[in-house]
Prior knowledge:
- The protein is of the alpha/beta class and 246 residues long.
- It has one domain: Spore Coat Polysaccharide Biosynthesis Protein SpsA, Chain A.
- It contains 7 helices and 11 strands.
- The strands form 3 sheets. It has a 7-stranded mixed beta sheet, sandwiched between helices.
- Helix 1 links the parallel strand 1 (25-30) and strand 2.
- It is globular and about 45 Å long.
Amino acid sequence: MxxxxxxxxxxxxxxxxxKDKDRKxxxxxxxxxxxxxxxxxxxxxxxxxxxxxxxxxxxxxxLKNTFHNCEVIVTVGFEADKIFKKHIKDIRFIxxxxxxxxxxxxxxxxxLNNITTEDVLLIHGDVVFNLQSxxxxxxxxxxxxxxxxxxxxxxxxxxxxIDNKAxxxxxxxxxxxxxxxxxxxxELALLKLYCSNRExxxxxxxxxxxxxxxxxxxxxxGINPLNSQIIKIESIKDxxxxxxxx
Length: 246
């Protein structure tokens, strides 16, 4: 009688879109809007932060080092030529030529029409974040947004979290949404559907997310990662604050 050798088979751990070699991630950085509080300084994404690099260059470097299997798309509009001149390698620019008469939803629509994956990470171009903020956002394979208690202005959009799930985004509540969201599956399909509807072109992204959350079976997890540091740049004062935190 031959002895049988028992082989223990372990489940291969998945790291999530952008990290798994067979699951590419599309990262969309939204930069078309002028940012009226700082319009005289040009595109906010070109403001210099730590080590004298622009917010955009910082974001792209951190994202590419975190998600090795990704494509990066940068939407532009306001003073787009200044951003083009940065000559950043291995990214695609999508220009919203009517940025002054449309909203961020139009930026998202244009970018979604040019992606090649079924996993999308949306990030506002005026958000500065550290590695811990985004490192695990795609890990569960479920749509997920990042929220936090600090470094987001009081008048910004908040989110209600129940059982680790986002239920509604609105002004006047805490914690605050960090303007970072990963969408896949049904939630991404709904985003594409709503952004392509001209009736919603003047809505804000958080309003679109609320519409997604209203649909049966839609789920967007909410995470507040340990040691996460995120600052939304609204003024030169925020730049100074960012330099002392991130």
